[in-house]
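pipeline/complex-builder :: batch 7 item 3
reading input block
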Amino acid sequence: MTRNEDSLKALTTILRAASSVERVVKEDMVSYGLNATEFTVMEYLYNRGKQPIQMIGKKILLASSSITYVIDRLEEKGLVQRVADVKDRRVTFAELTDEGQQKMMEIFPQHAETIEKLFKELSDSDLNKLRALLKEVGYKATKLIK
Amino acid sequence: MTRNEDSLKALTTILRAASSVERVVKEDMVSYGLNATEFTVMEYLYNRGKQPIQMIGKKILLASSSITYVIDRLEEKGLVQRVADVKDRRVTFAELTDEGQQKMMEIFPQHAETIEKLFKELSDSDLNKLRALLKEVGYKATKLIK
DNA sequence: AAAGTATAAGGTAAGTTTGAAATAAACGTT
DNA sequence: AACGTTTATTTCAAACTTACCTTATACTTT
């Protein structure tokens, strides 16, 4: 097989694997009453604490108006709140409410366990290899984004 | 780092890499006047020939109602046509029109070249390793989908 | 300090995706 | 052959995402 064909196959594999993985992860997230985007935002805030709204969008690769929408939904659910920045009045932070914090402490371990299942078959070294290779491809990809 | 944490990191890496890769690929597709879903369907038909509509949905992991929508768009563009199955009258095939065939023959090589760039940094063996690992994870994932 | 430029958040409209329900046809069992 | 079940496609409404635009604020240069 030519290198070119290999690349195409690799692309197909990466996209399909990602799609299947996303589906599993999504189903898990939905079982907690959150859609994938909402969960991703919650997880980000859970790990990083209070963050500027625009920063969240950048990190999880979502358009600015989409973030507004998601944060709106999460506020309605009482899981996230907006807090004004006193230094830069253009900025609004999003942070978990106590209820949101509570919820993440509850579901995060379950979520981690679901993910653990996905990678159970791989040896430690394979898992690390996979991460390294994907990191490289991902890095290359970000460089190619216009 | 615990194995559990490694799994989470691996998930993050796979999803981020996929997201970046998707973005690059998507930009390429859009440059041909097709969105990602449309291109994926076109590519599938280009490689496999005439296919039942429902089969396409299964293969590219799209809800049946979404396929209907995409095929509608592609028909409007004159790239795809619906053909009734004479054996099973529930089934409708989708296939490339001559124009669609023409278009794919034109853009497919360019598309392949874009993708080639993504994986340029990886050695042949790394590329194969990546595919093998992702295949395993992807397979595991499909088993976990409810 | 004024003027121009850059950045943050949100509004709006259009396009995409989904789930649920509807319709039609085929299949399986009695 | 009739009856219930499954499968394929479509329709519809609702949810989500994006691109483009607006407003407000901060930064930079003169």
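note: Chain A has six helices and three strands.
queue -> next item
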